[in-house]
Automatic annotation (TrEMBL):
This is Rve domain-containing protein. GO terms for molecular function: nucleic acid binding. It comes from the Eukaryota. The lineage of its organism: Eukaryota, Viridiplantae, Streptophyta, Embryophyta, Tracheophyta. InterPro entries: Gypsy_RT_Integrase-like, RNaseH-like_sf, RNaseH_sf. It comes from Cephalotus follicularis.
Length: 103
């Protein structure tokens, strides 16, 4: 009976679409090490989220790898201009000019 259930779930389209996705890394994970605070940042967009005031339904988030400091800003649309604004206003003006991998 167990094998019949396993076979059914493997063949069921709805079961496959709603099943948990395996997110195992293809290789072992390694830590990202930053040489000092505010030297390296990671950025990502989150959304769409429930609509907030000003039709804002996205979030741009920047995280400093060393300190884990988070800068975030709600957005109505995802554009280059919005990303540039967050980098300028919340990172460069507060912590200085970012450098690429050459130190």
């Amino acid at each position: 009976m167990h094998q019949n259930a396993v076979d059914f779930v493997r063949k069921c389209d709805k079961c496959q679409r709603n099943a948990n996705i395996s997110r195992r890394p293809l290789e072992p994970l390694t830590s990202i090490t930053a040489p000092w605070p505010f030297a390296q940042w990671g950025m990502d967009f989150i959304g769409p989220l429930p609509v907030a005031t000003g039709q804002k339904k996205y979030l741009i988030v920047a995280v400093d790898y060393f300190t884990k400091c988070v800068e975030a800003e709600p957005l109505a649309t995802i554009t280059y201009k919005n990303a540039k604004s967050l980098i300028w206003k919340s990172i460069i003006c507060r912590f200085g000019v970012l450098k690429d991998n050459s130190i």
